[in-house]
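== Fold encoding ==
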Amino acid sequence: MHEYTSTARVWGLTCPGFPEEVSRARRWTRDILRGSPLADDAELIVSELSANAILHTASGGLGSFHLALAISPKVVALSVTDEGGMGAAPKVEQPSEDAVHGRGLGMVSVIAHRVVVHGSHSGYTVTAELFTDTQPGGRPC
C-alpha cells in the first residue's frame, strides 16, 4: 500500500441546532452504514450525541453541530462536535432512579467499545468507537 493512501473513509455533516435535525443525523448514519452489522448501534449513538449537543450546549437553537463518521476495516468512529458554552464537559453520570436526564452518555458508553471526549468550554467532541473485530482474543485495532 502506498504510504499516503488509507483504507479509512470519512464523511462529515453539519446540522442546524434544531430538534428535527436529530432524525436527519440518524438517517444520514443509517444510509452510510447500510448493510453493516454496526448500523443500528451507530444510529442510536449518533441520535443520543446529537440530541445532547442540541439540548445541553450552545449548538441548540441558532447554533449547529457537526457529525463525522469514519469507517475502517477495524473500527467505525462516530463523532459529534458541539459549540460548547454551557456548563462542564460531557461525562457519564449515575443519575438517581427518578432523574429525567443524565443517562444518555452512559448508554453510549455501554454500546460503544470506547468513548472519548475532547475539547474545552468553546466546544466538545464526543467520539464513540465501535470495533468490527470483537472475537475473543481478537485485537480491535
